[in-house]
Amino acid sequence: MQKGSTKTIIGVIVGVVVFALAFFIITNIGKETTKTYSSNGFTIDLPKDFYEKSLASVTTYFESPTAIVTALKEEFSSLEVVNIGANSTVDEYAKAVARNNNITIDLKEISNTDYKYFTYEKSNAGKTFYYMGVVLKGDDSFWLVNFACEKSKKNEYHDKFITWAKTIKVN
Questions:
Q1: Span 33-170 CATH architecture
Q2: Cα 29 from chain centroid?
Q3: What pLDDT sits at residue 82?
């Protein structure tokens, strides 16, 4: 083999490798690999960096390095003390949640679902957090699903929270 042809072959191989790598990166930009998480009658699709943790005050809790998702199942029978039951609407349940937590809410619909949401901010341990509360009605209960991140990441996470909420399924 001649020196020139060896350089040409190496150049072609390097070029193909660079092209293949660039193609892989470009076609995967913005793609988030998700996983279906399921626990205690609650199912949701989230990025793979979430993991389940135990938290006594909620039915289900998922956490990632930058966001959390909690789900609280409240059976109709346990809500009767606050005049919420099987015949109550999601709006009535959301208003009861707001009263109970001393927050003012502006309830909005999540398109293509029966779910509604509200947002609020709260400070804890010197940091302010952005929350999106999603309310929905199951066969035997209402569910309150809270998505949260640091307030500084609000713009990054708001649309993600909506996308994730659309994947919620409850028993």
A1: 3-Layer(aba) Sandwich (3.40)
A2: 20
A3: 87
142 vs 118: CA distance, rounded Å: 15
pLDDT for res 23? 55
Domain positions in the chain = 1-31, 33-170
Give the dihedral sign, CA 142/110/165/154.
negative
53-93 residue pLDDT tens: 999 999 999 999 999 999 999 999 999 888 999 999 999 99
The answer to whether the Cα torsion of 37, 109, 114, 55 is positive or negative is positive
Q: How large is the average pLDDT for residues 151-164?
A: 97
Instruction: Give Cα separations from 146 to 14, 60, 68, 88, 136 (angstroms).
Output: 49, 11, 8, 21, 12
Q: Which amino acid is at 40?
A: N
